[in-house]
């Protein structure tokens, strides 16, 4: 007699070709707070996942556990269906690009790239060709003989990428390697990571606190805070449909309003009912918080000038901030007990349309004001 | 044009609120800046929370005095003034060397016990032709080489563990153990080793417990090298520790993620990156060992003399200053040549102050 449940559990799980699976992974450093708290996720082969979160959110710890530099105190991590918890880092097939790159300064660029091939006992006759091939891939052909110190910051990044990929690992890990670069170089390297990842099709996990980077490079994003996975979704979905106030606030620029839920699923602040939408039903009177993004609010001098909106409110300009390509207004709504909204105004013809103290009207559509349970 | 005029009324009001003459020497522009931050109330000088610390007053007074003593126009020579004491010290040594060089060119007149008038290379000839001195020189160089090898062999893991351990208790214990011998002079330590290694000493007693007959552990070549390694270890560790600290932990982590096990990582990453430290420590240990006096004298018991012991004998036993000076100069030349060869092959390591070869 076979146990059907056991049989199902023992069957090879190749249906969706999962490359990395973490189940209920926790990390307890023994200081009373779980650095990673019951994290579970799956990553399909060939996909680019970004773990996004503020510093101290546990994202780096999670990456270190996948790489094998730290051992989780609970849960299991599998790579290509095999549990890796017992394997030391050098036995895992993982390439990693480190925050400070950690290139070997006593070797040339080519020797750095050849290092993992030597350590992993590749055929010595193939090493030279493969090193050249990967230096070409990162557009460093001809720089192989350079010492690491003789390369620019961007070139060093490229050597680090080539070194992490040259042995064709099952998984590529990026531990905030772009954090220290200036904006221009960072944006250039983000596109390079994307290009190389698409070209090789290597499954990649990237860790960053840069929401823009996460949206630009990833197929899939995990948002972490306080050691917990807050949400996992594709970039567009994550941005459009945040599941909690933290995600709504961490990606993009959101304004928040506290209030209570109404029976028909809207938000009540004082006597005013604000039109909004919610992913779940709240009992009338439950304390809730609503969030709306700065670009989803319309701004005009009068309510009539707003055009058709589900919700219109009048207020005053409390502050104006010039951001170059657009103007941001902070608008105070007296009727909502002084709640402030941050609004982007994007009109190339009329920068500085309003001044501090001017009366203005705000409008938005019901689906854009998201109602959540207050953050714990 | 309505661009960015929103803040103006507030600004003008704030300026009006400022007390007349907010401070001596305040220009219009700084007053303007104060006004641009209306939320910070301007404070009277009497209510200031910042007091000029006494430490700063003392430093100001000292600086004032120094300015009178060493005016700013002398500043191009400050570097020379600072290096002067060191130059004087080295200068005296060099003078002494010249004096010795002169002495080494005169032989001892055994009738009068004074140095001969005529210049001669006889002393050098004596050293070159003497089998004894040949043995002494070979022994010194060989022992120095062995000492460097064993000291670095022991110091590297010691320094590595001290730098890399995550336990501060372990690090402190290692540091204290390292510094304790510094408080005890070389002679006392050599004497301690005499007690431990003697025929009835701790080492032989321990061997006796496992049924091994007492053996002579002292007054032979290994005893001297043992004593030297024991003496040099702290120097080597202290010179290696900063070199190892300079290797980021992440490079080792990277090596392991690239497929290197611990031994390979140490061999291919830590060791080459620690090379400057190893060379610096090796040079210091080597020169100190080559010129050592106490260990061969005490642990060698007269049978294992180094060059320094031979020099001592010439100066203070036979009173042959000429021969002693010749030996001393040979030691200086020998040491310099060896150091020169090492530096020309490997570079000066950490002693090169960042100049890579």
Describe this structure in words.
The complex is a heterodimer of chains A (376) and B (357). Chain A is of the alpha+beta class. Chain A has 2 domains: 15-240, 3-Layer(aba) Sandwich (Rossmann fold), CATH 3.40.50; 253-372, Nucleic acid-binding proteins (OB fold (Dihydrolipoamide Acetyltransferase, E2P), Beta Barrel), CATH 2.40.50. Chain A is built from 9 helices and 21 strands. A 6-stranded mixed β-sheet of chain A has the order 6-7-8-3-9-10, with helices on both faces. In chain A, helix 3 (109-119) packs parallel to helix 5 (153-165) and helix 4 crosses helix 5 (153-165). The longest helix of chain A is centred in the middle third of the chain and has 18 residues, at 183-200. Mean pLDDT of chain A is 90; it is low at 1-9. In chain B, helix 5 packs across helix 16 and helix 6 (131-164) packs antiparallel against helix 7. Chain B starts with 7 loop residues before the first helix and ends in an 11-residue tail after the last helix. The relative contact order of chain B is 0.09. Chain B has helices at residues 8-17, 28-35, 54-69, 78-104, 122-129, 131-164, 168-179, 186-197, 202-209, 221-245, 249-257, 262-273, 275-290, 294-299, 307-317, 321-346; strands at 108-109, 114-115. The chains are: A alpha+beta (376), B mainly alpha (357). Chain A binds chain B through residues 67, 69, 88-90, 92, 94-96, 98-100, 102-106, 115-116, 119-120, 163-164, 167, 317, 320, 322, 351-353, 355-357, and chain B through 2-7, 248, 250-251, 253-261, 264, 268-269, 272-273, 275.
Helices and strands, with pairings:
The complex is a heterodimer of chains A (376) and B (357).
Chain A: H1 4-10, E1 18-28, E2 34-44, E3 48-52, H2 59-67, E4 74-79, E5 82-83, E6 94-97, H3 109-119, H4 124-137, H5 153-165, E7 171-175, H6 183-200, E8 203-208, H7 211-217, E9 220-225, E10 228-233, H8 235-240, H9 245-250, E11 254-261, E12 267-269, E13 272-274, E14 277-278, E15 287-293, E16 298-300, E17 311-322, E18 327-333, E19 339-345, E20 359-364, E21 370-372
Parallel strand pairs in A: 3-8, 3-9, 6-7, 7-8, 14-21
Antiparallel strand pairs in A: 1-2, 1-4, 4-5, 9-10, 11-12, 11-15, 12-13, 15-21, 16-20, 17-18, 17-20, 18-19
Helix pairs in contact in A: 3-4, 3-5, 4-5
Chain B: H1 8-17, H2 28-35, H3 54-69, H4 78-104, E1 108-109, E2 114-115, H5 122-129, H6 131-164, H7 168-179, H8 186-197, H9 202-209, H10 221-245, H11 249-257, H12 262-273, H13 275-290, H14 294-299, H15 307-317, H16 321-346
Antiparallel strand pairs in B: 1-2
Helix pairs in contact in B: 1-2, 4-16, 5-16, 6-7, 6-10, 6-13, 10-13, 11-12, 13-16, 15-16
């Amino acid at each position: 007699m076979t146990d059907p449940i056991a049989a199902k559990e023992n069957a090879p799980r190749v249906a969706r070709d999962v490359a990395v699976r973490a189940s209920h992974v926790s990390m307890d450093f023994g200081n009373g707070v779980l650095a990673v708290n019951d994290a579970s996720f799956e990553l399909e082969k060939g996909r680019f996942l970004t773990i996004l979160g503020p510093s101290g959110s546990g994202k780096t710890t999670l990456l270190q556990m996948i790489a094998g530099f730290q051992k989780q105190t609970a849960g299991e991590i599998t790579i290509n269906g095999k549990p890796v918890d017992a394997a030391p880092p050098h036995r895992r097939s993982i390439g990693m690009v480190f925050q400070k790159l950690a290139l070997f300064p006593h070797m040339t660029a080519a020797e750095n790239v050849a290092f993992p091939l030597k350590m992993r006992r590749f055929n010595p006759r193939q090493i030279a060709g493969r090193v050249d091939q990967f230096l070409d891939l990162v557009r460093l052909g001809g720089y192989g003989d350079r010492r690491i110190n003789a390369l620019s910051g961007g070139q060093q990044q490229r050597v680090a990428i080539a070194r992490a990929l040259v042995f064709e690992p099952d998984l590529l890990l990026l531990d905030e390697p772009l954090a220290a670069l200036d904006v221009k170089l960072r944006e250039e390297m983000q596109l390079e990571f994307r290009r190389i990842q698409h070209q090789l099709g290597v499954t990649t996990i990237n860790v960053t606190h840069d929401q823009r980077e996460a949206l630009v490079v990833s197929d899939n994003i995990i948002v972490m805070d306080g050691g917990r996975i807050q949400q996992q979704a594709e970039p567009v979905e994550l941005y459009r449909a945040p599941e909690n106030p933290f995600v709504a606030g961490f990606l993009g620029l959101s304004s928040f309003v506290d209030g209570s839920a109404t029976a028909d699923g809207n938000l009540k602040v004082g006597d005013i009912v604000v039109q909004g939408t919610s992913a779940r039903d709240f009992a009338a009177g439950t304390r809730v918080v609503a969030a709306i993004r700065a670009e989803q609010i319309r701004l005009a001098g009068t309510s009539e000038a707003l055009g058709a909106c589900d919700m219109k409110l009048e207020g005053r300009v409390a502050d104006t901030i010039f951001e170059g390509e657009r103007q941001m207004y902070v608008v105070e709504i007296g009727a909502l007990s002084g709640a402030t909204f941050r609004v982007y105004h994007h009109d190339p013809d009329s920068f500085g349309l309003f001044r501090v103290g001017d009366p203005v009207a705000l409008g938005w559509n019901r689906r854009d004001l998201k109602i959540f349970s207050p953050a714990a | 044009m309505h661009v960015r005029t929103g803040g103006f009324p507030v600004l003008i009001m704030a300026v009006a609120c400022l007390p007349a003459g907010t401070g001596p020497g305040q220009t219009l522009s700084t007053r303007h800046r104060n006004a641009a931050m209306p939320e910070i109330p301007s404070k009277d000088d009497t209510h200031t929370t910042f007091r000029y610390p006494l430490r700063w007053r003392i430093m100001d007074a000292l600086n004032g005095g120094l300015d009178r003593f060493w005016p700013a126009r002398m500043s191009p020579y400050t570097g020379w003034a600072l290096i002067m004491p060191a130059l004087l010290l080295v200068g005296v040594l060099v003078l002494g060397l010249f004096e010795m060089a002169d002495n080494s060119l005169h032989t001892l007149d055994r009738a009068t016990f004074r140095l001969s008038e005529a210049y001669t290379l006889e002393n050098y000839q004596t050293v070159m032709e003497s089998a004894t001195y040949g043995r002494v020189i070979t022994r010194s160089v060989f022992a120095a080489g062995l000492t460097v090898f064993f000291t670095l062999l022991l110091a590297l893991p010691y320094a590595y563990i001290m730098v890399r351990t995550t336990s501060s208790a372990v690090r402190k214990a290692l540091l204290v153990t390292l510094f304790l011998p510094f408080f005890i002079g070389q002679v006392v330590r050599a004497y301690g080793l005499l007690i431990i290694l003697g025929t009835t000493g701790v080492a032989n007693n321990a061997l006796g417990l496992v049924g091994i007959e007492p053996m002579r552990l002292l007054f032979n070549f290994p005893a001297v090298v043992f004593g030297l390694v024991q003496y040099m270890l702290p120097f080597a560790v202290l010179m290696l520790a900063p070199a190892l600290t300079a290797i980021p932990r992440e490079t080792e982590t990277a090596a392991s993620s690239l497929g290197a096990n611990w031994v390979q990582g140490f061999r291919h990453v830590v060791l080459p990156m620690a090379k400057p430290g190893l060379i610096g420590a090796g040079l210091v240990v080597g020169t100190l060992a080559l010129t050592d006096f106490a260990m061969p004298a005490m642990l060698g018991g007269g049978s294992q003399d180094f060059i320094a012991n031979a020099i001592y004998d010439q100066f203070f036993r036979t009173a042959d200053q000429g021969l002693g000076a010749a030996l001393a100069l040979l030691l200086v030349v020998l040491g310099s040549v060896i150091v020169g060869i090492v530096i020309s092959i490997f570079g000066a390591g950490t002693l090169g102050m960042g100049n890579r070869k």
